[in-house]
Amino acid sequence: MKPSLRNHLAVALGSLIGLVAIAQGVSSYQLCRAGMSALLDLRLEQVAQRMRNGLADSIPATPARGSQPVRDIVISVRKSGADIPLRSTEPSLALPGDAAEGFSSGRVGGEQWRIYTLRDQGTLIQIAQRSSVRNELERNTALKTLWPTLVLLPLVLGAVLLIVHVSLRKMNQIGNAVQAIDASHLESLPVVGVPVELLPFVDSINRMISRLRQSIEAERKFIADAAHELRTPLTALRLQADNLQPHIVPGNQERFNELRAGIARSGALITQLLRLARADAPRAAGSVEPVDASGVVVDAVAGVLPLAAARGIDIGADTLISAQIAAPLVDVAAAVKNLVGNAVRYTPDGGTIDLNMRVQNNAVWIEVTDTGPGIPAALLPRVFDRFFRANADIEGTGLGLSIVKAVTQKYGGDAVLRNREDGQSGIVAAVYFPLADQRPDQAVRYGEPSTDRT
Ligand SMILES: Nc1ncnc2c1ncn2[C@@H]1O[C@H](COP(=O)(O)OP(=O)(O)OP(=O)(O)O)[C@@H](O)[C@H]1O
Ligand SMILES: [Mg+2]
Prior knowledge:
The protein is built from 8 helices and 12 strands.
């Protein structure tokens, strides 16, 4: 089991409180018994004093046999040296005449007795009480003193657990916030309300986040600058190639075409690198103008329609719903165009591409389903990695889905890719963005699905 500060504190404090409660219970039990015993002794002594002051005459000379209740004390008054008492509440009980002055204990008539003996001018006064009666009285009284401890113990333990829980809640909150930190989410941890003991910890994490943010930003800027700088010489190269075109002899035409294709590939890579750097840039401060999601879908389909038609691909939007997205148009459009572009690129001629929209959990989902070859399950988790390509036969830079991931996550959405599960081969590529107006009554699909394919 992993060490837990909360468990450690709860067990340590719980054990400590338990030990204190046991010590307190044992001591109050013992003290109460001792006090009760002293009280009972005092009573024996007081009765003996009263007998000396002449009250012995009030005891009948021959009380009825067995009239003495078991719980009562026994009084015996006799002349010193005589075996038969003058007065006795229990004549059948022969208390020891040679008992020491004061308190003593002894067995009489098969039972243990506590006896107080007083000798006064030739008279022997003895007051006795059964030890079993005394023990029971002492025990019952002492047990009553344990009740407050027994009632309070679970309450105190519960309060301790609650205090430990509440005290560590802030720590849990910080732990959750630290867990949520990744390259796409580099927010500083809030310091308001953080206990002073945890402030150095939170401060150093915030410093680390700020350093991380700076280095990621520096890397992003470097990529953007490098791509930008490469664009100018590449444009010059392309112009020179164009100028050379009329002078290429037919035997070199094929190699010349390869050279131009290479220049075009490099141009595409530079363009994608610039888009990625833009997608990775932190989101601008301030609110964004909501975007109509269905407009983005229609534009994306329209953009690839000529190419799709040329290849006999049937592309259309089955469901168009009116929903506003809380992200800039350029980013939402980039994400959707990338998915549609992939679908057209990887779907064989004569295939079908369907676009669907839905509103779910305060987010607008846009889904692109194709009839392409799909992606081997083992490679699926890597498709969002930069420069990763699952299909080497078709040209691409391997950056498109990284751009999609970056823009969706920047605005609180995400991108997911899975193979079709309806028995057909193909990919279901989806992006979602938060709804612009997240009122609970809008967290359901609104707008009627269109039956016309766009
Ligand atoms: N709809 C799809 N069908 C089959 N494979 C796909 C599909 N979409 C993406 N892939 C696979 O995922 C890989 C990564 O896609 P991504 O869009 O990131 O890069 P790309 O298409 O190769 O290049 P780029 O989009 O930068 O021009 C692709 O190389 C391809 O193998
Ligand atoms: Mg792509």
